[in-house]
Amino acid sequence: MGKLFKIFPPLVGLVLLLLMVWLNLKYGITYSSLRGFSNILDSTVNFLSIVIGFYSAFYGMIISMQKTKFITELSKSKHRNDLPKLLVSSLCSSFLCLILTIVMQSLIEYRLQITTVLFYAWFFLVGLFITYAFQTSMLSITMIFESDPQKKQKKNLKM
């Protein structure tokens, strides 16, 4: 499951990239013919801004949870290096996607070869970002509920 978890983000990005290549070859869809692409870019900037804000809050939550049993056990486990790598990958993919989205907002007005290349790269990065964002969200849910001492105490009482 760990290897699948690690390869899933680039795999989703690749699937989105190949889907757009297929749509281009089959139906001629490009950045200039995709209706509403400008609106998609605007919405993506807004969503990315929200997610980057969430990451900032999430990192603050991790700092405040440093002495919890969950973080203590995680620091002793074989997965102790996975959390920082996931968080860095999530944040980097968010910022890269944001930067490329802003660049695409300007370049969609020009029919340049580099715009076509960046159009496909954008879909790859969106797939990467969405998958990392989902994984980070799942991690934050796990951290919140698995580190709740009251829940663990109730769980122990039921057994």
TrEMBL record:
Protein name in the entry: Uncharacterized protein
Chain segments annotated as transmembrane: 7-25, 45-65, 86-108, 120-145
Keywords: Membrane, Transmembrane, Transmembrane helix
Species of origin: Limosilactobacillus alvi
